[in-house]
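**User:** Everyone, produce a chain:

**Assistant:**
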Amino acid sequence: MVFWEGYVSDEVMGTFAPIVLYWIYAGFYQLLPPLDNYRLHSRREEEEKNLVPLLAVVKGVLLQQLVQATVALLLLTSNANASGVTVQPSILVQAFQIVIAMFVMDTWQYFVHRYMHQNKFLYRHIHSQHHKLVVPYAIGALYNHPLEGLLLDTFGGAISYLVSGMTARTAIVFFCFAVIKTVDDHCGLWLPGNIFHMFFQNNTAYHDIHHQLQGLKYNYSQPFFSIWDKILGTYMPYNLVKRAEGGFTAKALKKD
């Protein structure tokens, strides 16, 4: 039994919990003190290089989440048991379903993301909107063109859910985890003890390389693993270099 049972359905919870968590977690990063000793870019770089104001970013994210919520609610409710009673599989089965969903989402996002870079029209008119945040920050994790948000994130999430065969309740765990990971990958901070940096090679610095000019055609993988980058030759290694004025720089290493 879970705390929302009897008050909110799993389908509604699965739709809105990731959105609420996004703003809580991204807001937490936004409200932190400057933490200049842990930033991957200086505050001056963020102000000078980013091409879109915070308010426009917030509006863009809210628009994408509106689309996501609509699709998620339709998908989860249409897939619900007619009796209203869903038997949850064992914890082991749910864990396996989540791993499957992670791999499916990574596969979908890698190839769609890469194609949006390779197709000049799609990059210029759609994907370049995300790269207007040259210096990523947490609230901008889902700042995309609406069409990209639909193709990359919303469809990718729907396919992951359907292929894995998970229930709506398991989907709550998966999508909340995916949201936290995505926000963390864009937070722009290399904090000590960050569990994502310990267990995932695809992390804040890894994705920061992709937002740099020399890494634009590398490190497409998101949000979990770096498997496809390594298999298909788009993996860009890097070193974390400490800056004299404080903080770190993710420095791409030239490929042979």
About this structure: The first strand starts at residue 238 and ends at 242. Strands lie at 238-242, 248-252.
